[in-house]
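Quick one:
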Amino acid sequence: MADHESTALIYTPKRRIGLWLLIILFFSASAWATKPLTYKINGLDKALLQNATLYLDNLPAIKPEQLDEYRHEIREALQKSLMALGYYQPTIDFHSSKKAASQLIITISPGQPVIVQSLHINLEGDARQDRAFTRLISQSRLKTGEILNDGEYESLKTGLSKLALTRGYFDADLSEHQIKVYPAKHRADITLTMESGRRYRFGPVIYDAPVSEATRALLNTMINFEPGQPYRSEQLSQLNMDFSATGYFKSIEVRPLKDKAVDGEVPIFISVIPKTAWELETGIGFSTDEGPRVSLSVDNPWLDEKGHSFTSDIRVSKTGQELSGRYKIPYGNPLLEYYSLDSGYQRTSVQDTDSQLISASVNKWKKRPGNWDQDFFIRVDYENYTQGQQNSSNLLLIPGMSFDRRKLVGNPTDPRSGHLYNLKIETSAKAWQSDADFIKVWGRAKWLTTFFKHHRVISRIEQGAIWVDDIQNIPPSIRFFTGGDQTVRGYSYDSLSPEDSNGQLVGGQYLSVASIEYDYEIVENWRVALFVDSGTATNSYKKGQVEWQTGAGPGIRWVTPLGPLKLDFAFAISEPGSPWRIHFSMGPDL
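Output:
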């Protein structure tokens, strides 16, 4: 019997690699063969092309060999996209691309558009006398003589319905809404009729049962409507935001009870759950004025049902340390009217200043949106300090007042325009056992405007004066210094002031600063800047006794959700050789 040899297929490493290469090539070829169909559209303007592309993108992925099967769906999608913009009789031709088998070339002649021949918008009920509806209709781009646009028609319908709800027309109904299109005549007739019924009014406030009487009394100071006033949902939205802004509550619900309306008045339901736990917040930051800094905040926003709250902050940087605390006591609306008991310790070590300040104050705040916010205070300061060659301490009782006004247009962290005004007056006298007599007045104004969309100008002036017999009679925290990120760029923080015989800074009786900056937006959220700052801290404006210092240079702005990040390259052009410094800071311009 002959011996039979069995044979076996032996996989060597080289054969295994070859097999994997074949598998990869097979799947790559399969993937290439199933590459979905793409479209190239000719003959449409930008708006029509964008809409056609949008409709085609909503189709499923189509393989080139499936074109005949889906040709009708492609044509229908294109027709709908053109009809939506008023073109009802297009001519659509398909061609295969000679360069790419997976590309379909589509040539479209949109034809003559349909024009709105007549437009009848009828308001029945109380909305007939409501200017908000008249304004909405006048602002709509749906007009007679214009090309029919389904989007504008739907936008007006939606706008009328939303406006009815927000302004208290809870029974409103679009009883008639139709477009009659006559493609052969290239015309359309539109009819919209809204039967609004009556406009409802604000009714009484109904609090949830768990809300205590004391809490209700506090919330009542914030209610922004009176029963009987015409209903507006914006007021309820604002009320909700105001409740949230107090920081008192972990849960807030404000809503109308439409089903409980009586004689056209809608009760407003309010439910809140106060915060009871202490809150802890930490932060880190950096600026060239202060260097790296860390902070810690401890808050209790709801100490009792009268709205008392407490906050404490610790802040540490290379220029000093600060510990502060505030106890707030509302005497009206807690966002706008409250007393505060403030206290703090501040250690400052910058330039030729080494100071330790302990202070306590009683403040009465009254904030008036759109007007001047005011603070009347009495403060006690004890400051132990070394300023240049002077070592001393002062105990001062300082009554004073401050006024602030801010107006912004646009995003609060990056406004398009606005202004900011600050004014502060404080005084002290030996007559009430203070260590010094003085009167200090300080003010600042900033303006921001944007023009031609991408251009903006920010200008600033600052002026201060102290009436005192001798600047050395008052501590460094009262004197004027300038220079740094927020004042005169090109100079280090608080480095500009009069000097003593040893060339050490002593602080000044007067302060003057002016600045102008031009920004240009190169791409979204990025701007380049050019600026000029000039200022002085001095004891006299007489010629030969005052030194004006000027800094100028370019900068970069990156707009983030928290505010612009600012990087400036500033040249101290008043100094020999115009030395330069980099300034980095973060925060809104106003």
